[in-house]
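protien #1 (seq + structre)
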Amino acid sequence: MAKKKVKKAKAKTKAAAKKVVKLKAKKPAAKKAVANGLPRPSGKPFGQAGKALDGVKILDFTHVQSGPTCTQLLAWLGADCIKVERPGVGDITRTQLRDVKGADSLYFTMLNHNKRSITIDSKHATGKQILDRLIKHCDVLVENFAPGALDRMGLTWEYIHKLNPRMIVASVKGFGPGPYEECKVYENVAQCTGGSASTTGFRDGPPLVTGAQIGDSGTGLHLALGIVSALYQRNRTGRGQRVLCAMQDGVLNLARVKLRDQQRLKHGPLTEFSQYGEGIPFGEATPRAGNDSGGGQPGWILKCKGWETDPNAYIYFITQAPVWEAICDLIGKPEWKTDPDYAKPPARLPRLKAIFATIEEWTMTKTKFEVMDLCNAKDIPVGPILSMKEIAEEPSLRKTGTVVEVDHPTRGAYLTVGNPIKLSDSITEVKRSPLLGEHTEEILTKVLGYSAKELAEIKTSGAITPPEKPAKAEAA
């Protein structure tokens, strides 16, 4: 009996050992399924594996430009963006700069593509309940209200985080913590306080703001990156966080080369500035430099054929050192290649104004596109000044989706800017902006799960409709 028991025990041990071997053999297969913690590469064709941000749900409390720029970009990348608007009013830009009577303005339509609109009265008790449910449902809340506005609505960070610890709360503000934290900021204010305006314009003229919306749209782009980073970190930590982008900070980031030059001034004049070549002393701050290149290569905007009648018949021309000899040949000045006053960059510095005047004599005999073709053939860096009309009509920009034509139910077809970020496996589709409250019922029922009975009660409660105007008293 004892021998039989020993044999049985040995047999069990062998069987268990075989199981262990089998389990060990399976482990390499599991490793093949996941590499570096990532799933195996999709077998679907590129462009058919879904959008980059599929599954991400955005609660959009933004308005005007900085916030909508951010949320539109996220929506282009595949996020479900639910825009919350006041009943009967909506985003203020729906009616600003309106060009088609009765239709949402281009200001609004060009900043709110691919979004869904729900109208909610946040001061109404039922409206507040709907917002709470949206906070629990969404991944990111984005807002660009005036300082303190979200807190006054009762949506403090602590309140939101308690409802949804995974929620990321992202904000655009004018300034970061400091003496101006409570100040409201608009585009041009941001350009002025972020250092752009003081360094834009000509030396003998006033500071200038740029036509590019580097304060609003520039900060919105910064915020989008912050949100995506917070989403990525949440995969590791499981919790949300606050993301802040101040407009002053965003503008300064885009004007960083001017902060670079401010520090270089301590060690002597900025030799690449035309001001230096003209023998004009530098002050204590980075000066306005007209059309000087910020990268150290002398450059200027020059007239081209037709400049007398066309305000955009100009080209930006850079006298880059490696192609100086090619420039000399092209403009009919081959003697400059060996002339000690022109052959080397240091010798050219005090003569830049005269050099560009000579180059301009040549560019004025040709259209800006002819100059571009001739220069590009010699690797000479130039850039034609393109008008918005030329950009709107450029076929290559349509082909790449940089400029897109979109149809709208009330205003008809219009042009808009497409997604500037091109991904090979996440194809962008630009859809029209939503009508005010267009998706209210859809979001309440299909997203938040309200029943038909509850929907009917919400409709009659006044939580999603504009307040009724008091009836006018009849004349006696």
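ok now protien #2
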Amino acid sequence: MTATSKRSFLKTASIATLACAMLASCSTLIGPRDVTVPLARMQQGLERRFPIDKRVLSVIDVKVTNPQLSLQPERERVALSVDAVVTPPFIRQHWRGTLAISGRLRLDAQRNAVYLVDASVDRVNIDGMDEAQQRQFAKVASLVGDQLMHETPIYTFKPEELRYAGVQFVPTQLRTTADALVVTFEPAR
């Protein structure tokens, strides 16, 4: 190897080392970033998970369809309305109606998803049930709501949403607006 080729090699190696060092330092320079997830995109993701069939108390079958998501930033809650078909045991009759559930949003870092927590059943309206039966079914609906919300994410982050400029990010904070979810991402440590 000649002296000129050695210098050229050392110069190239120095530039490559400097470029690697600069890229590594970029991850510390990139700070938190906010990503807006429109309500329409959350709605589409939720619709793909439906219909959902649940057996409650090991005897009552409930099928929920047609999820309708809405944001309530003034209450810091999210509302979910679903159509429901209830099949009680030993009866060949189905009851149809709607359930309205609301709760707070929570990040699940393990599953890279947003879930509804502290869910409450706001309204039960089942055709063919009198008021007393609807109050009883509201208790069952509460169990359905809990199961549904613990197992069904409102939104799941795509891998490309967790990487930016070659840096891995994690969601750390949520905020709702009238028509979107705003997620703060920070570089992973």
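The chain is about 30% helix and 45% strand.
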